[in-house]
Design goal:
The complex is a heterodimer of chains A (about 110) and B (about 120).
Chain A: E1 5-7, E2 10-14, E3 19-24, E4 30-38, E5 45-50, E6 56-59, E7 62-67, E8 72-77, E9 86-94, E10 101-102, E11 106-111
Parallel strand pairs in A: 2-11
Antiparallel strand pairs in A: 1-3, 3-8, 4-5, 4-9, 6-7, 7-8, 9-10, 9-11
Chain B: E1 5-7, E2 10-13, E3 19-24, E4 31-37, E5 43-50, E6 65-69, E7 75-79, E8 88-95, E9 107-108, E10 112-116
Parallel strand pairs in B: 2-10
Antiparallel strand pairs in B: 1-3, 3-7, 4-5, 4-8, 6-7, 8-9, 8-10
The chains are: A mainly beta (about 110), B mainly beta (about 120).
Chain lengths: ~110, ~120
Amino acid sequence: ILNVEQSPQSLHVQEGDSTNFTCSFPSSNFYALHWYRWETAKSPEALFVMTLNGDEKKKGRISATLNTKEGYSYLYIKGSQPEDSATYLCASRNTNAGKSTFGDGTTLTVKP
Amino acid sequence: GAGVSQSPSNKVTEKGKDVELRCDPISGHTALYWYRQRLGQGLEFLIYFQGNSAPDKSGLPSDRFSAERTGESVSTLTIQRTQQEDSAVYLCASSLAQTGRANYGYTFGSGTRLTVV
């Protein structure tokens, strides 16, 4: 069973602030790391799928990095907006497992 | 369909009753997953179907839980003799085949909120 941990559990920032949070996962037998955004009353939405050490992905003001050797990924949001308020989930998949194990998420609240 | 469809969206049931939750995945997605989120907790894996392979049932919490999938389409999750601790949001997701090193993001349904009273 994978142990995927996210920190912080919650985060409150002002509009315009940049922020980042962490996902840590077992580095052995790593296959892929996924990031999702889960807004209240909606379904989780895939942000990034990352597989290679050193991967950097970007989508608008949101970007993510991956370090598979030490087992962590960072998600960055530049110039946070109220619509960025959501829970951000990471999920790790290891060797030959078709399923991913999710962390508990980081809940971001952006105040106008 | 365009997305993953789940029904019902909400279900209130009495303790001890059986419930059946339905998931209709995206056409062509051979992988289908059930997760649940209990209040204050993270997403908990329940079961995974991949094509015609034997399902990975390692996350089912007890023998009261079972799931079936018809070919590569609809799946039903059945909970027998429901207990209050079964109250949760049950999420279904589908994806293209997660085999070998192929990795695809999940597309989630909107979930079924189950309340056992």
